[in-house]
Amino acid sequence: MTLKVLELFSGIGGMHFACKEAERLTSSSLQFDIVAAADINTSANSVYKTNFPDTKLMAYNIQDMKVEDLNSLQPDVILMSPPCQPFTRTGLKKDVCDPRCSALSHLTNVIPSITSLQYILLENVKGFELSQSRQAFVEMLSSNGFNYVECLLSPAQFGVPNSRTRYYLIAKKCSEDRQQSRKFGFAYRDGELITQVPQLLTNSPLQVTSFSPLISNMTLLSILDTIDVENTLYIKYRVSIKDLMKRFNVLDIVNTGCSSTNCFTSAYTRYAEGTGSVLSSLEDMDTIEQIINQAKQLVLLQQQQQQQQEKTKDGMDSNPDG
Q: What GO CC terms are in its UniProt record (predicted)?
């Protein structure tokens, strides 16, 4: 079975790569033909073209794409990762009032007119599930014969060493046999927001026995090059002693043996807390913890000494005979 795929907001090609992985996991019983990809970001497009040089890549503002353009591609599947900034926890959460929502709003209007479309996968940040944009999108799906399920899942649940919870919506066009077309190959309940890896049905069309894990549990060592502390890049991005001493209590410090890292955000390197993990070249986590504890004790001692000095100074200032 071969499905024609249109990849929107394509970035550097993550969805494209996922399609290739799906082909591998299903032993090629399911094939994807990426008929086109579209993104307005020139830097991302440059990387995409390097990753997938044979794919038609359109440097489009997606909100300007016409129904005729979309129908000419005859996609069976649309994959999309619309801009997440209008919904992020650290943003203004302007939702539909944010201009960056215009492209998704446009797609919400034109999708009903794409005659070949059978499946949709939409990915976004956690928080999208509460948005007006999501509400408008699912209402459009329901009004146009699509069944859908929604998930909040993290790569860590599939064995990938990164905690990055994201929203996923999977939609499927109903056939005449509406009850049969409701099935997605895994167990779910109508209206449920799936937060755990779903259980595959015994008659699932997927040629895998389980979603969890689809790959072996990985550590950072399995996806990183060996750390060379003398490497120029390693030295360039090394956390300074000053920053380490000042921020160690909020840093998520990991080593190559760890099987989890924090979600990396655009604020990484600008903010220490909650923006991503810091990699240590030390192999023993116990040693890292000992160093951190010693640093905590040193900072506490410095604070106590500073407080004592301030008390002594205040005492001298209040003594007129001093």
A: nucleus
DSSP E strands, 46-110 = 57-58, 77-80
Contacts of 233 (CB under 8 A, 6+ apart): none
- Banded model confidence at residue 90, pLDDT cuts 50, 70, 90: low
Q: DSSP secondary structure string, 58-75?
A: E---GGG--HHHHHHH--
Look up 19 and say whether it is catalytic.
Answer: no
Pick the most confident of 60-64, 269-273, 281-285: 60-64
With bands split at pLDDT 50, 70 and 90, how would you rate the model's confidence at 15?
Answer: very high
Average pLDDT for residues 130-145, to the nearest whole number?
94
Q: CB neighbours of 129 closer than 8 A, spacing ≥ 6?
A: 150, 152, 167, 193
The Cα–Cα gap between 122 and 87 comes to 14
Could you tell me which residues are beta bridge partners of residue 194? 151
Q: pLDDT value at position 213?
A: 46
Q: Within 10 Å of residue 21's Cβ, how many Cβ atoms?
A: 11
Beta-sheet strand order (sheet of 2-8): 57-58, 31-38, 2-8, 77-80, 119-125, 166-173, 146-153, 193-194
| Mean pLDDT for all residues in the chain | 83
Residue 295: partners with Cβ closer than 8 Å, 6 or more residues away: 244, 245, 248
* Over residues 269-273, mean pLDDT: 84
Say if residues 247 and 292 touch (Cβ distance below 8 Å): no
Helix and strand numbers, DSSP H then E, in the chain? 9, 10
Under a CB-based contact definition with an 8 Å cutoff, are residues 265 and 242 in contact? no
Cβ atoms of 15 and 81 closer than 8 Å: yes
Please pick, among 84, 101, 151, 263, the residue that the annotation labels catalytic. Answer: 84
pLDDT tens, 205-225? 554 545 544 555 677 777 666
**Distance between first and last Cα of the chain:** 92
If you average pLDDT over residues 247-252, what whole number do you get?
83
